[in-house]
Amino acid sequence: MAQTILITGVAGLLGSRMADWLVENVPDAQVIGVDNLSGGYLSNVNEKVRFYEMDCADEELIKVCEQYQPDYLYHFAAYAAEGLSPFIRKYNYQNNLVATANVINACIKAKVKRLVFTSSMAVYGHGRPPFDEADQPQPIDPYGIAKYACELDIQVAGEQHGLDWCIIRPHNVYGIKQNIWDTYRNVLGIWMTQHLNGEPMSIFGDGEQKRAFSYMDDCLLPLWKAATLTKASKQVINLGGTRYHSINEACAILKQVIGDAEVQYHEARHEVKNAHPTWKKSVALLDYEDKTSLEDGLMTMWEWAQRQPQRERFRWSKYELEDGIYGFWKNESEPELKNQ
After folding, report:
1. Contact by Cβ (8 Å): 215, 241
2. Is residue 179 packed enough to be buried (19+ CB in 10 Å), middle (13-18) or exposed (0-12)?
3. pLDDT, tens digit, for every residue of 112-154?
4. Cβ–Cβ under 8 Å, residues 237 and 286
5. Can you tell me the mean pLDDT for 84-113?
């Protein structure tokens, strides 16, 4: 039976690769893609996707959902810049929380069978790693607060309006089609772009922060199962790498892949020291397999990065708040860019 799937953020890493996977593995599926192209690229979007350029907070999204009546909706659109979020609070909440409220309305009105929402490891805050889905979230920045608020709103919509959902908490996802030109997020991509531009790779603080990195392609089949399996209904699930590395270790692995590079340390940021999750629930419910080592994943991504156009890097022209802004970002302002 033909199925219709709508993906928000379809021009970004998660959205574009999920669309590719659906085109290749669910050939009878009609894939509808929505993106405002503020953080993704039109060239990422699979040619078989019916694409709409719009913001998820726009009322037009509801009209698109009512037109196509999608079976499943993947809400991947977000601006995931934890460290920057205290300095762009209004944008953060508009882009993440307000937009998600509109997505929830669209799902209820179109009677979507299940909403799959990608939250974030940021909801856990400092916590006590490894973070478990049963832990009480304690986010420490506006981005994590917005994501947790979205989770709660989705669950309330399930209770009051019968919306089925699956909340995924991915962490440090990387791979081809990632936006490596954003100077505030996606550390592995930032390092690649810095190196391609003859600059040292930047590390905040001492580099001993621990993170689990997740190769995008390992997450695609589990994301499909998050939408379609009965046992994934109304579940909150960590999804991603089962092995963790310090930032220094990750940087050393990338240096081996690209053939050495210079590193520059900067002032520490307000961030969680160690952020790595439990993973058994993703294996039990979504059959997740951590198949790709960080070295192998970075080799594939680096080969892709070297073939990309020399795009201008995104920098905020004006922060909402400059008090306490880190020195590394303070004097780098340029006009905001529209991604093409």
Report:
1. yes
2. buried
3. 999 999 999 999 999 999 999 999 999 999 999 999 999 999 9
4. yes
5. 97
Q: How many other C-beta atoms can be found within 10 angstroms of the C-beta atom of residue 128?
A: 9
Which tens digit of pLDDT belongs to each residue from 21-34?
999 999 899 999 99
Strand partners, 237: 168
> Which pLDDT band, with edges at 50, 70 and 90, does 327 fall under?
confident
Rounded to the nearest 10°, the torsion over CA 77, 283, 136, 57 is 10
Q: What's the full length of the chain, in residues?
A: 340
HEC per residue, the chain: CCCEEEEECCCCHHHHHHHHHHHHHCCCCEEEEEECCCCCCHHHCCCCCEEEECCCCCCHHHHHHHHHCCCEEEECCCCCCCCCHHHCHHHHHHHHHHHHHHHHHHHHHHCCCEEEEECCHHHHCCCCCCECCCCCCCCCCHHHHHHHHHHHHHHHHHHHHCCCEEEEEECCEECCCCCCCECCCCHHHHHHHHHHCCCCEEEECCCCCEEECEEHHHHHHHHHHHHHCHHHCCEEEEECCCCEEEHHHHHHHHHHHHCCCCEEEECCCCCCCEECECCHHHHHHHCCCCCCCHHHHHHHHHHHHCCCCCCCCECCCCCCCCCCCCHHHHCCCCCCCCCC
Instruction: Let me know: does 211 contact 250? Beta carbons within 8 Å.
Output: yes
Q: Which amino acid is at 54?
A: M
Residue 36 CB coordination number (10 Å): 21
Residue 339 pLDDT > 50, yes or no? no
Paired tokens of 43: 């060239």
**Measuring CA to CA, which residue among 185, 257, 252, 177 is closest to residue 220?**
177
